[in-house]
Amino acid sequence: SAPIDFSGMVARTLAELHNLKLQVEGRATAEEQLRRWLAAVQPDGPIDVPTLSEAIAGAPDLRPVASCAAERAVEEVLTSRTLCHLDLFAANLMYGTSDGTGNVAAGDQDVQFIDYEYASDAMVGLDIANHMSGCTELIEGESVTFDTSFYPTSTQQMHFLVVYLAERGLSS
Q1: Are 92 and 85 in contact (CB under 8 A)?
Q2: What pLDDT is recorded for position 106?
Q3: What span, in angstroms and rounded, lies between the C-alpha atoms of 172 and 163?
Q4: Of 40, 105, 153, 161, which has the maximum CB count within 10 A?
Q5: How confident is the model at residue 165 (pLDDT cuts 50, 70, 90)?
Q6: CB atoms within 10 A of CB 17
């Protein structure tokens, strides 16, 4: 049988979510959530909140200026805002079949997202980057570790983006 294109399924499902253009009244934006989390950090704790806040505030200035039409198109997609999941690591991706039988021959393969606790209005690129970095996360019981060898290669990232853009009806 043909290999399962799990990455493509995740890309299509994420594009479907982003195409919904949902707005949730009263839901904090990603930036507001981050400000709340930073405000909740204990001042005598291990995190230097002022330095971290300054670095976060300066992050937009680090983005390169688009120098051609293709770069401007990519920038437009990645900086567009919509409802984003913002927690797409493996434990929040459910794989199965659309008919619920588990029998691939009986139904199409499908990926569903669960746990929308961190969902908010955010830039699309943040959701995509969050998923890519989530590929490195390994959870065993209460233990969470990271293995950077699982970070998608350039070829895998490109495949994800091509499928994502096609599903959103945008040219790749």
Answers
A1: yes
A2: 47
A3: 9
A4: 161
A5: very high
A6: 20
